[in-house]
From TrEMBL:
Gene symbol of the encoding locus: tsaB
Residue span, Gcp-like domain: 31-175
Keywords, sorted A to Z: Transferase
Organism of provenance: Oryzomonas rubra
GO molecular function: transferase activity
SUPFAM superfamilies (alphabetical): Actin-like ATPase domain (SSF53067)
The name this protein goes by in its record: tRNA (Adenosine(37)-N6)-threonylcarbamoyltransferase complex dimerization subunit type 1 TsaB
Range of residues in the leader sequence: none
Amino acid sequence: MHIISIDSSTAIASIALTSDETIVAEALFSANKTLSARLIPEIERMLAAAGLTIDAIDLFTCAVGPGSFTGVRAGVATIQGLALATGKPCVGFSTLALVAMNFPLASLPVCPLLDARKNEVYAALYDCSAPLPAPIMEECVMGPEAFLDKLSAATHTPVIFAGDGALRYRQVITERMGGQARFPSPFHHAGHAANGALLALHAYRNSATLTPERLLPVYLRPSEAEYAKIDQQNTRQSR
């Protein structure tokens, strides 16, 4: 089974072309203002190098969040369009679970943290002792201190912290968690689209695919535009 996978939900975007559990091609690059314009050319380049056409792809998948609102929308829209054009199914996967996929068979729980800005993090906790991560604490968004207090109450074992939020708030994590905090090498903090293909393959084998219109972003909190709308409504009501 050929799969195209995209993760454009963080500052480091990635695209992968896989065949079952084998990586055919994968690219990681900095996500910037040209992200949307770059996704399709990167996919076309991978297909050409592999001697495949888009019609040979059996499944399309992407990170649906949480993460950058703009990045998540770009990935979802691209996968929706490709799946719709080819009549193939698609699958969404969690950005946090994707980071946890960097630690298969880990004996310690893994806590992916993504910088959500506004002094908050997107966070979850996973059991990664099996090839695919299983959630221990559900995805949430809150201040890092509040989350770490919640985490301390939930587990008394060392925890692996990963993701750009773990990098930004490393000092806070160390102060709150002490010797319980474990940090991986720098290259384990970014998600890899090829790991997303493994999550999608598992979903496909369990009949959990989606039609394009059902592939939706998971933001966990309102966007800047929604915040602005709420502020405007509150302003009108206070007059």
